[in-house]
Design a protein that fits this description.
The structure holds three protein chains of three kinds. Chain B is α/β, with parallel strands linked by helices. Chain B is built from ten helices and 14 strands. A six-stranded mixed β-sheet of chain B has the order 6-7-8-3-9-10, sandwiched between helices. In chain C, helix 9 runs antiparallel to helix 11, helix 9 packs antiparallel against helix 13 and helix 9 packs antiparallel against helix 15. The radius of gyration of chain C is 31 Å and the shape is elongated. The chains are: A alpha/beta, B alpha/beta, C alpha/beta. Chains A and C meet through helix 2, helix 4, strand 4, helix 6 and helix 7 of A and helix 2, helix 5, strand 4, helix 7 and helix 8 of C.
């Protein structure tokens, strides 16, 4: 079929261009690696601690902080680097332990640990609260050891050891956690967050930038050459649409494969995932075709295309989850096809969705694809004839 | 008349890797002279031109314009105007923007630039397209502007590298006329081409170049006189042309034979008397001669005589 | 007019006529910065609704609820009284509150018994931070109670006779945990998303200049214009300087315009103007050197485009133009400092938070200029080859 021949020629030209190949296949993987290593989720506080010269008791506090749920400890060697890190946002709170805690602990003078946090920054406030609670727990040991040493004949070191072991066994006022739900409204953390969102982002972006090829082909006079032969305009359109669809599909398969093999991403229900990938590839094909008919020069396509792609990806929740933005922005975001795709992936990955669950999103995406493909086909048709 | 030539090239040599392109070329051009460098594709014409304009450094030899070396004295470049073979203009700038830019490159004072640009546009018959982008011009218009760009600064020596390749006959005719005018106005012109008719028509002197060497030089008359009474016979034929050429060479009285894609060229004394012998040879090896052309000695014949190959492919 | 200025002027004229250059240099960074600014409005403060179910109404329970409603707590949470645990579960599930505290019946009374009642914290998987914060806040309250209980048990375990239990308990109740914490501010301004992403996006799109400029050099060469310039009475160095100048001017214009607009219209904090300008200029110089490097290394236009893309995206990814580099692992943060844009981002971040004017940007500027010298040096050697 001639449309296939056209698709083959277009695909070959795109594949031969090393720059396109880079954007198509290499860049998405690199981004996944780099950004995935960074997005560690939104549930732990990073706390910096300066505890040099704080003695063995100080180290106990550090260790308690480290073991605490929801706190990641990072050590610093001096106060300046601690406060600088806090200012830069590398940590959410800074803890400065006083010198030689070991020696002064056995007296009952209260010891103050300094927590650096801004009053106006509520994240830092929340982190400070978490730290305080750990410190108080440590302090309870000291209080108990002192108390027992004062009222018995055992020395402090012994009572401290007793208190430490008793803290685990003495019935405390406990805090039990009750889970109200089990289904997340955001994608799971780490690579399982990045891989699906990058898939959505890059397929669309590459398609938009790839519109440059259509423009180039027209400029070279190749469409004229084709139309001078026994080829309908609609065959050309079908061939080009097929090209973009196939490339989007290949790109998707690569990302899915690398994601699951290298980063252990689970893509959810296979049938639903496959249909979602195919539908999104169709949306990409429409976007590519539209880009090829909308821009006038290849440079415009490769410059404005990616910009628009990034903007849409941002609106649609590919770069940060829409659940953290205002309700208005969420609604605006759903003007983009990206938002619907991310919703579908979230359902599959975080809520064990099936084909039935994501049917609404698939429907919307199919509608987007249909609109994009028909509008761009019409434009191309008019240009060719 | 100046006692020393405007342009002097002495023993120019240049290789690319181990491929020699120009091997010891020397010539000179006087003011008002139109000097043609005639040779087939790949003979070394463009390489020579580039050395003259200071774009390539010769491996040996020197180029001087009015006695000053092109490679060491930057201001010498103001004396020459360069018209490259391919159009060298900015497609996204207008005709006048292109010319203004180039004029300023040659350090023309601002008050002169505007006037000069207008003059050149008029010369190129593009005054009404001054503010249109060059990428909207036809091929012929671009060529004219390309040439005009080399004239902005009133060069003493104009160097044109095959300016009529791919140009329609009308434009070619007007380009050739213009070049003659330049010569008449006292400009020295270095003109390279592989079209004999152009060299014959406008050049006061011609240097024949082949395989990087200048194999003959002189006025048309001087060159042709070398041939004496020899005529050039061109036979359009079909069949085994190489065998035919070999057969022709064996005929006594034949000086040189060359083949092109559809013809055999022969230089021989008393061409008309040779005709029956040549036709007999063709019949013997079963080659059909379709047309015969006998011409008085011309530059193409000179070339054939000197090199044993045709000027054209 | 010196030839270098002439060539730079001509390049700029062509660049400004090219619509894609305007889009990438100006519109794109502004658009994206604006998007980010709107998206993140209101997400910078951490505040949530905490449901409270007080089935006990005893002394301690009332104290607990009061402490949650204190002035200090109100900066972080708002209390929402709920009637029962099942109501609390539904509220958390539906998202009306981010978490809930349930104080069971008999809680206050149970504190003097051997096995005290537990408090329950209802959490949602979508609000893990709020759940943890609630645990911490309530935990700070119960810490003293637990400390007193532990003190008594430790004393008993250390040999104090059981008969003294009541006396011990009474004494323990007067204790205060000797390890306390106090909060201090560090006196730095807060880094808002817009103040991070305005420079980040401006710099990212500045990097695109490398693509444009290197491409246009090869286009010029293919069109025979470099040769034409060399046939004119110019030194090759003048051509190079002219091209470098045009990149410099374009880059500076782009960066400056985005900086001014995001500061004025979106409230982005770029720090003290002089320091920001110097940092920006240093960065533009590095972009010029990188462009020269691409031109020197690449042989064809295609190669230049590929190399430039690699460079632009590689630098942007490493340097933290896409993600807040502060949330990256330490290795990534160190790697970022090997890129000129990464250094610049650190400089701008410090200017916006710690302040410090020139002192804050001296180190980044030094690092950027060092990178420029290295790349520029390599480029000069190679670029001469490209022109001659």
């Amino acid at each position: 079929m001639r449309a296939l021949a056209i698709a083959r020629a277009s695909t070959r030209r795109i594949i031969r261009d090393r720059t396109s190949l880079f954007f198509l296949l290499v860049l998405p993987i690199i981004v996944i690696i780099i950004v995935g290593a960074t997005v560690r989720g939104f549930s732990t506080f990073r706390v910096g601690v300066e505890s040099s010269n704080s003695g063995p008791a100080g180290q106990q506090i550090v260790s308690a902080l480290d073991h605490a749920r929801g706190i990641d400890v990072i050590t610093y060697t001096n106060k300046k680097s601690l406060t600088t890190a806090l200012a830069r946002g590398e940590i959410s709170a800074g803890v400065l332990l006083p010198l030689n805690l070991g020696t002064s602990e056995s007296s009952s003078r209260p010891i103050t640990v300094t927590i650096y946090a801004e009053q106006v920054n509520s994240t830092q406030q929340a982190a400070a609260t978490a730290v305080t609670s750990v410190i108080l727990r440590q302090g309870a040991l000291v209080q108990s050891a002192n108390f027992a040493a004062a009222h018995s004949s055992s020395p402090y070191a012994q009572t401290l050891a007793k208190a430490t072991s008793l803290q685990h066994s003495v019935p405390q006022v406990g805090l039990k956690t009750v889970r109200a739900d089990s289904s997340a409204s955001t994608l799971p953390q780490g690579y399982s967050y990045i891989a699906p969102t990058e898939l959505v982002l890059f397929v669309f972006l590459s398609a938009l930038a790839g519109g440059a090829t259509i423009i180039e082909t027209r400029r070279l006079g190749m469409y004229e050459r084709m139309l001078a032969g026994p080829v309908h305009a609609r065959t050309i359109i079908a061939g080009e649409a097929l090209t973009y669809f196939l490339l989007a599909l290949v790109q998707s398969v690569l990302i899915v494969t690398v994601g699951s093999v290298v980063f252990a991403v689970s893509w959810g229900n296979p049938l639903a995932a496959a249909l979602l990938v195919i539908t999104w590839a169709l949306v990409g094909a429409g976007a590519g075709l539209l880009s090829g008919t909308f821009f006038r020069t290849p440079e415009q396509a490769s410059a404005i295309g990616p910009t628009a792609g990034i903007a849409l990806a941002m609106l649609g929740g590919c770069m940060w989850p829409l659940s953290i933005v205002s309700a208005t922005m969420r609604e605006i975001g759903h003007i983009t096809p990206q938002a619907w795709a991310v919703d579908a992936w979230t359902s599959l990955l975080s809520r064990h969705g099936s084909l039935v669950t994501i049917l609404p999103q698939l429907g919307v995406l199919a509608a987007f694809a249909a609109v994009l493909l028909s509008v761009s086909s019409l434009r191309l048709y008019r240009r060719l004839s | 008349m100046v006692d020393r030539p405007l342009l002097r090239c002495e023993n120019l040599r240049r290789s690319f890797g181990d491929r020699p392109a120009v091997e010891g070329i020397s010539f000179s051009i006087e003011p008002g002279e139109i000097y043609g460098l005639l040779g087939p594709n790949g003979a070394g014409k463009t390489t020579t031109i580039k050395m003259v304009c200071g774009l390539l450094e010769p491996d040996a030899g020197e180029v001087t314009i009015e006695g000053r070396h092109v490679n060491t004295d930057l201001s010498v470049k103001s004396l020459l105007g360069y018209v490259p073979q391919d159009i060298a203009l900015y497609p996204d700038l207008t005709a006048s923007e292109n010319l203004r830019f180039i004029a300023r490159l040659y350090k023309l004072p601002s008050d002169v630039v505007r006037q000069r640009v207008a003059e050149v546009l008029e010369l190129c018959e593009l005054s009404d397209r001054a503010n249109d982008r060059v990428d909207s011009f036809s091929g012929g218009m671009k060529r004219r502007l390309n040439i005009g760009a080399g004239l902005l600064h009133h060069p003493r020596l104009l160097v044109l590298d095959e300016p009529t390749v791919g140009v329609d006959p009308q434009s070619r005719h007007s380009i050739l006329e213009r070049v003659q005018e330049f010569g008449r106005s006292g400009m020295a012109v270095l003109y390279t081409t592989h079209y004999m008719e152009e060299a014959e028509h406008i050049c006061s002197r011609v240097g024949i170049i082949d395989h990087g060497r200048l194999i003959a030089e002189g006025t048309r008359r001087e060159l042709v006189e070398q041939l004496g009474e020899r005529d050039r016979i061109e036979m359009s034929a079909t069949g085994d042309l190489e065998a035919f050429a070999a057969a022709c060479r064996s005929i006594s009285g034949v000086d040189s034979v060359a083949t092109t894609s559809d013809a055999v060229q022969v230089v021989a004394r008393e061409g008309r008397r040779m005709l029956p012998l040549l036709l007999e040879a063709s019949e013997q090896i079963d080659v059909t001669v379709n047309a015969i052309d006998v011409t008085e000695p011309d530059l193409e014949a000179v070339f054939l005589h000197l090199t044993g190959t045709a000027l054209r492919d | 007019m010196p030839a270098a200025l002439l060539i730079a002027g001509k390049d700029l004229r062509q660049r400004l006529r090219d619509r894609s250059a305007i889009v990438l240099g100006l519109i794109a960074p502004l658009l994206i910065a604006a998007l980010m600014s709107f998206a993140f409005k209101g997400t910078e403060t951490f505040h949530y609704s905490l449901g409270v179910v007080n089935d006990d109404h005893g002394v301690v329970a009332t104290q607990l609820v009061k402490s949650l409603d204190s002035k200090a707590s109100r900066t972080v949470l708002t209390l929402v009284p709920l009637s029962s645990e099942s109501v609390a579960r539904t509220s958390v599930h539906d998202g009306h509150v981010a978490a809930a505290l349930v104080i069971p019946v008999g809680f206050s009374a149970s504190l003097s018994a051997v096995h005290p009642e537990s408090l329950a914290i209802v959490t949602s998987v979508n609000h893990q931070i709020e759940g943890n914060v609630t645990r911490s806040i309530v935990g700070s309250f119960t810490a003293q109670i637990n400390a007193d209980r532990l003190s008594v048990e430790t004393a008993l375990a250390s040999g104090v006779p059981l008969s003294s239990l009541n006396a011990l308990t009474a004494k323990a109740a007067t204790l205060r945990i000797p390890l306390q914490s106090v909060e201090r501010p560090i006196g730095a301004d807060q880094l808002s998303a817009i103040s991070y992403y305005s420079p980040a996006m401006a710099i990212f799109f500045l990097l695109f200049t490398i693509s444009f400029a290197s491409r246009s050099f090869f286009v010029d060469r293919a069109e025979g214009m470099i040769e034409r310039m060399r046939a004119a009475p110019l030194r090759p160095a003048e051509i190079l300087v002219g091209k470098a100048l045009s990149v410099f001017v374009y880059g500076t214009l782009s960066l400056a315009t985005v900086g001014v607009i995001t500061s004025v219209a979106f409230g982005a904090n770029w720090g003290s103007p002089l320091s920001a300008c110097l940092l920006g200029l240093a960065l533009v110089i590095s972009v010029v050197c990188l462009t020269a490097l691409v031109i020197g290394v690449a042989r064809t236009q295609r190669q230049a485009e590929g190399l430039a893309s690699l460079l632009v995206f590689g630098l942007a990814l490493l340097g933290g133009n896409f993600i807040m580099i502060s949330s990256s692992p330490p290795l990534m943060r160190t790697l970022a400092l090997f890129t000129p844009n990464g250094e610049a981002m650190r400089g701008f971040t410090d200017l916006a938070t710690i302040g410090g004017g020139l002192a804050a940007v001296v180190r980044p500027i030094e690092a950027i200029l060092l990178i420029s010298v290295v790349t520029g040096g390599a480029a000069i050697a190679l670029a001469r080859r490209a022109v001659t």
